[in-house]
Amino acid sequence: MRVVAAMSGGVDSAVAAARMLDAGHEVVGVHLALSQSAATLRESARGCCTIEDAGDARRVADMLGIPFYVWDMAARFKRDVMEDFVAEYSAGRTPNPCLRCNEKIKFSALLDKAVALGFDAVATGHYAQVVERPDGVRELHRAVDADKDQSYVLGVLDADQLARAFFPLGDTRKPEIRAEARERGFYVASKPDSYDICFIADGDTRGWLAQRLGEQPGDIVDAASGEVVGSHSGSYGYTVGQRRGLGLPRSRQDGEARYVVGVDAATNTVTIGTSDLLGVNAIRGDHARWCGTAPEGVVQVGAQVRAHGEEVPAQAWASGADVEVRLSSRLRGVAPGQSVVLYDGTRVVGSATIASSWLER
Question: What is the pTM of this model?
Answer without folding.
Answer: 0.92
